[in-house]
Amino acid sequence: MTETKTDELVGRGNKEGADLFREWFDSLADAAKNGRGAAYVFVMGSMAELLHVFDFPLVLPEITSLQTAVRRVADTYLAEAEDYGYSPDICGYVKADMAVQLRGGQHPMGQIPKPSVAVMSNACNTYIKWAEIWERMYGIPLFVLDVPATRQAGGQFQPGSSDFERDRKYVEAQVRELITLCEQVSGKKFDIDRLRESLGYANDMNEGWRRVLELNKSKPSLFNAVTDGTVYLGVSNNLRGTKKGSQFFKNLVEEMEYKAAHGIGTQIVEKYRLGFVGVPCYPIFRRFSEMFTEWGGNFVHSTYLNFASGGGNLGYQYDVNRPIESLAEGYLISVREAMDNMFHQDRVVIDWVKNYELDGVVYHPIKSCRTVSTGLADGRRAMMAATDVPSLFIESDMMDKRVVSEAQMKNRADAFFEGLASRREMAKVAQT
Amino acid sequence: MSVYTSGIDVGSTYTKAVILKDGNEIVSRAMLNTGFRLEEAARKAYETTLEQAGLNESDSSYLVTTGFGRHLVGFRDVNVTDINASARGAAFLFPKTRTILDVGGQTMKAIQLTEEGKVKSFRLNDKCAAGTGAFLEKTARYMGYKTEEIGTLAAVSKTAVPISGVCAVFAESEVINHLSQGMSPSDIMYGSIVSLVARSVQLLKRVGMNPEFTLIGGILRFESMSHVVREQIKTEVNVAEGDLVQYVTALGAAILGYRRFEKIQREGQQAIAGA
To answer: What residue spans of A187-322 are helical by DSSP H?
Structure first.
């Protein structure tokens, strides 16, 4: 009986995630074929819950771009954008997307529809310049959701305070402006009950995501935050505020609770529990992960799962009785959390060292994203000053294999694990 | 009965082998160009050390490989990273070492050690060979000199020519430019060393400037290199005498081999299983 249950549940999240991914890309290809205009959005502050009310197909160009890297064809896309005139030094996601646009929306997983509107937050400063390219290409309106960020690390305004309420009202006013814009672009009247429905599904997803991340404190950990985690993260973005997304996370929680109860970990024998800071190395995604797993290192958490889920890790629950006000509050809290996971990651990581019982932390700055990479060296120093946990700093890229040096990264990773092993030996000796 | 252990450092430019007796006495060492047949180079270096020591392969109880080609030596017992091996070698020669600067053919490393001589943290150069031995070698070659002449050439310099870039590929155009302006090859060579050291000191600062400092690696065989490092960090530095400075990592591998062999003798093979 247990064996049957294990077969049914273990690995289900990865399989369902992959299936949903394909379905989502297929739906976008249909939309492109039928000439439907999409809403182009980003992973940090997508406003998907609201955009579903107007039946926009949602395109997340960051995800389309990273798929070109995972499928090992990003180089041709990057080269095409560089031939067109973009500098090798700018964001790889932007360049891959430009090539996709120049190809009429064609990408390795199908085709994306053209945009009717683009919605972005201020969480990433490239978002705005990126969307301005679409504005020029397609003559579409842009909407920037300006979310007040943390002014001082550790001093975030909390609900109930007048400062928070002022920020919340500022976001709410923008949400109302966005509703008007969506009505104009889609020709559909805003339906508050549909928003309630979408928020309800998002609540399930947020709570599921929070719970799944929490469950990975288990020993052994239940999933690899860099590999498996990225699959779950994809669903949290692609299907935010949908019934399918809600069901996926309910199923995922069931799987993880089952694994936790039965002591089922990942496919490796977990010797070292690691934290990951930054964006994964997609051009050699599998190999990158193996550099750690072959030593028994498993990533139990990653700042990527927090910021690239738009702060969904907090599990914010919308109040469907006051949907617009609550949507504004949720975005203020969650997008701020996403930014904190990039700009104040030291605080997040120091917390993990204790709560996830980390043996080491891997920092992975990437050449083409200064937003997530600039503060990592400082964050690492702060983490080292606050804890006794060793760390590894390896640089590569999320898209561009020209700046990924596998041999050099492996050498650093090997030395890191030799250090962890020696440290463990010394601790054993000290105990005897 | 004496225990012999061996270390082979398959570096990007040279392959070095060391045989150690009872974990504390170097009985032989050999070095040759790595070339592109890495295992063959390791085999040749190893056999030369065995011959020098008057030993057979079966006399060596444990063989540890290190360096960028460490994985490709099929006849090893185990491989370790050059970071760990360098730490062991440097701490063996200079026990109070806390910071190591290793400048090799294509890599530059700064390593901080604990009081026990173990690796605490490390920093490596960027992905390119900028600021490593390759840069000096190419600079010398463009001016018609051999690698072995770098030390002599720099020693007669009167003033260092400022070198702005440290790119091994673009070195040629910069060298031609300086030569065309009447600069002497010795001053250009010395300027290249000053520029390279500035870059390595930057790396040292990133890992932490804790004395004692020990300099290792092929490039340190040129005396002007350690001289400029002393000048720039304003502190005395340890440098192994003669060509031993190039063998520190191989020596460290042989020491690790001895430790491991001892452990196996003491606790059995399972003591290191999965390590």
So the answer is: 192-215, 228-238, 243-262, 285-293, 303-307
